[in-house]
Amino acid sequence: MKQFDIIALGELNVDLILNQIDGFPEVGKEKFLKQMTLTLGSSTAIFAANAAALGAKVAFCGMIGNDSFGDLVETSLQKKGVDTRFLIRQDKYATGATICMSYDEDRANLTYQGAMDYMSLADINPEVFKVAKHIHISSIFMQSGIRRDIVKILNICKENGITTSLDSQWDPTEKWDINLQEVLPLVTLFMPNETELKFLTKSETLEEAIEKIRPYTNAAVIKCGSRGSILIRKGELRDSGELQTFPDRVQEALLNTNVVDCIGAGDSFNAGFIARFAAGDALDLCQQYGNMTGAVNTTAAGGTAAFTSREEVERIGRERFGWEK
User: Fold this and answer.
1) What are phi and psi of 258, to 5 degrees?
2) Number of H-type helices and E-type strands within the chain
3) Rounded CA separation 23/144 (Å)
4) Would you list the DSSP string of 49-109?
5) Biggest CA pair distance of the chain
6) Which of 106, 127, 228, 278 is most buried when burial is the number of CB atoms within 10 A of its CB?
7) Among 126, 184, 123, which residue's Cα sits nearest to residue 160?
8) Is-contact 49 76, C-beta < 8 A?
9) Is pLDDT at 241 greater than 80 in this prediction?
């Protein structure tokens, strides 16, 4: 038995979320906004906090500065039930921060990477790979050290019997320089959104992108926003030696007609999916649960506010979205 169902590995920062903005920023001009929230940020932290709220035993491995933002990150994770023993406090670098400008179902972000860009495999406590059942990695393009060591990290996970998930997220440099043919066979579950997948594979359409990753992917779930998600599974051999193939599964979204904001909706999808995956659910049930948790995310500002407990999340899922177990 592993001590933790999930260890989230990677970027940490605070989010300054700006909502109800009077138009787009323009150089030389000033505009008003009606709502501002300073909260725990980063895709991996939102994922970890929400997975813990859903009942998984979660720890975090990431680098932050010895500063007030670092204190906010650590205490926020602890309040959400995330174990912080593997956090790395760094005097040399400041904690990262992201300004999130929210516009309906989309957003524009500005990020100062800070300490998270410097963490590499050499900084990770080896105990992480002994106590984790599953490791989730997100936003590798925000983390030069992790991106450089990703193949080594995934191989160590495989050697220790740890399942893994990877959500590459957006590449701010728009180079998309990751070798999918090398990385994807080492990943248990690949979790991009459709736009990112098209850029990663240099594809014009989602269908083309899926066909490009299919030969290398063990399993993938592609997030398509208000259109739901697509689950792809590799075939399995029957006892007779015959190959059993699985059709791609499209799960329609549970739509919120009164969205507060969509910050962290994809991360909340990941949290729901991986929390159930770590608990042993079948992939199609994990996908259904992820669609529900992604929808619940949009009922409150920021990525974690809607996740107070598994019972409350599931209540909102039933009452507002008609979700059924």
Assistant:
1) -135, 65
2) 11, 16
3) 33
4) HHHHHTT--EEEE-EEESSHHHHHHHHHHHHTT-B-TT-EEESSSPPEEEEEEEETTEEEE
5) 70
6) 278
7) 126
8) yes
9) no
